[in-house]
Amino acid sequence: MTVFRKTPYLGTAFYVDAINGDDDNDGSWEHQWQTIAKVNAAALVPGNRVYFNPQAPHPGKLAPVTSGDVTHPIIYGTYGGGRAIIDGSADIALYNYNTAYYLRFEHIDFSGSAAADLKGTIQYWAHDAYFYDCIFRDSVLLNCYGAGFN
Asked: At the N or C end, where does the chain have fewer CB atoms within 10 A?
């Protein structure tokens, strides 16, 4: 098991606002992205951070494809107070099938729905993931996949 040590942030922070953002922006605080699809397509590197606005749900499937490293994980979190909602009701909230490692998720509410039958709220098959103060909810109870994690 890897223990992430608190280290100074060296990477760039990116911000996502589902209401007022625009995917043509650069992801900075002043020019936030709008969608999870933009986050998934971003060329993140170890130490990068992606912060979601907690004021409105972010629809889509968060599917990281780049890894952090043992001392600088890629962090997905919430800015401001509360928890950002990743709304995977159309499919699934978080998916990682050995595509990215050394990731940290903080203060996120992962939400699935009946549309995610046979999937659970998240599907995660990768090592060195850390979840801090996250919620996994609204998973389906059909066909033996009732847990938030699958």
From this structure: N
* HSE-up of residue 10 (Cα within 13 Å, Cβ side): 10
Split into its structural domains, the chain has a count of: 1
Distance between CA atoms of residues 67 and 72, nearest Å: 10
Q: What CA–CA distance (Å, rounded) separates 52 from 109? A: 11
**Matching residue, tokens 């992606």:** 50
SS3 content of the chain, % helix, strand, coil (to 5): 5, 30, 65
In a domain, 146, yes or no: no
Q: Which two tokens stand for residue 77?
A: 């979190």
Q: What is the pLDDT of residues 102-111, one digit of tens each?
A: 999 999 999 8
**What is the DSSP annotation of 66-87?**
S---SSS-EEEEESSSS-EEEE
